[in-house]
Amino acid sequence: MANSKDFDTRYELREFPFANGADGEPTPESLAALDAIGFGFHESTPKPEARKRKVNELIADEAVLLGAYVRKPQPGSVDETWPAGTFSWFPKALSWGDGTSINTQAISDVTVRPTERRRGILRRMMTQALERGVADGYAIAALTASEGTIYRRFGFGSAIRERNVVVKRAKALPFLAPTSGIVSVVTPEYLVDGVARQVFDRFDERSIGSMVRNTGSWPLVLGTLGRDGEPAKDTRAAVHRPADGEEVDGYVTWRMVEQPGGQTGIEIIDLVYATDSAYLSLWEFLLSIDLNDVVKYNRARLDDPIVSALGDNRAYDIEHEEDHVWLRVLDLPAVLASRPFAVDGSLTIAVTDALGYAAGTFRLEVTGGRGTATKLSDETDAAGADLALDVADLGSLLLGAVSPVSLAAAGVLQAADPAAPLLLRSMLQTPRAPHGITFF
Ligand SMILES: CC(C)(COP(=O)(O)OP(=O)(O)OC[C@H]1O[C@@H](n2cnc3c(N)ncnc32)[C@H](O)[C@@H]1OP(=O)(O)O)[C@@H](O)C(=O)NCCC(=O)NCCS
């Protein structure tokens, strides 16, 4: 759509929290938005009780819906009630892996009806949402993307990558080092009563890049609800306890799946661990299950310790690698003050930002592992700075998974002195690869 006037003639933007009415039932506008989102993501139409549950999950997550509504819908079209563009956000903590976190404006449910695409709905919704995010005090926005080329133009950078891996049983065991602790098979219901959340909280605290889960994710990963709204009949579960303790420090849920070529596979649904020992033991357990050829995991981290534990490292195949969480810095000084640093140092950083929020030249001083960023100028003084980059690439660097040295080699980060990206890499270094197991 050529201009803003055309957009406003055709669409009206409405923003509201998902809500129940005075009768305790979801409001019609909440249900219509839910249906539009489901259509956008090719989901089957849920039963009435599932729609109600989903709205209540979104209420629990404090989700706000931004919808683009067609002002003059065609008779009989869903546009009469559904928004043609959907967009939501909610608060979600992002862990720095040292027990601290930053609150993100977590963006989700981005869909535009095929009949209305490429008329600027996404651009308008994103612009309005980020403006609102800044007004509400968010220093950073986050999302997970269905395609890799949509969000950079809005200042988001891919900050974490993850892998789909397949481990072949025949070559995997024994592990090179002994595992410890006790693995027990449990029912998925055993995990529901606090056990899973307690383990997740410990995982989240130690894992830089981990994000708090949506309310609606829990029943799915624990198998208490399948996609059809009924309890999943195929989900199995096990827990790990340390040899000297009773508290569960890891759990896994999985299902059996047919593999190409008549093979049988275990597909890990959820694998959460508060210790390295729990992670290793649960993998060993899965690889020891008979009547099965491979174990598949679609959330593997890039520094997966299993590779170094396997009896034959060729048991480990990477099937696919993809971006996971994308980050968008809105308030640069606030984000850098929140993050812990591995090494002290100071650097001048010039940032471009088409939407303006993080544009300027900043001095980052890190002392005792804590940083202070001071704005030197509203201008992006690339020539006078140690490093110059776009806000999207700053988002990529932020967790420490993407190296400034790689970005310099890729030509998207400029540094006259090669020592500057090396110093920033050391400053941003993390004890283990940034990793998250939360999709939203
Ligand atoms: C992706 C989607 C949301 C885009 O919505 P839209 O209203 O057509 O996008 P806009 O017209 O506002 O386009 C905004 C910009 O993004 C670009 N863009 C839009 N969709 C894109 C895509 N799939 N890939 C790459 N670029 C895309 C446009 O070219 C435009 O660029 P510009 O403003 O720099 O010129 C829409 O096609 C959709 O609903 N797809 C299916 C669901 C989906 O993938 N959702 C994303 C979930 S993370």
TrEMBL record:
Signal peptide: none annotated. Residues 209-316 form the Eis-like acetyltransferase domain. GO terms for biological process: aminoglycoside antibiotic catabolic process. Residues 332-435 form the Enhanced intracellular survival protein domain. Acetyl-CoA binds at V110, T111, V112, R118, R119, G120, I121, L122, R123, S146, E147. Transmembrane segments: none annotated. Keywords: Acyltransferase, Transferase. SUPFAM superfamilies: Acyl-CoA N-acyltransferases (Nat), SCP-like. Homohexamer; trimer of dimers. Belongs to the acetyltransferase Eis family. This is Putative acetyltransferase. It comes from Plantibacter flavus.
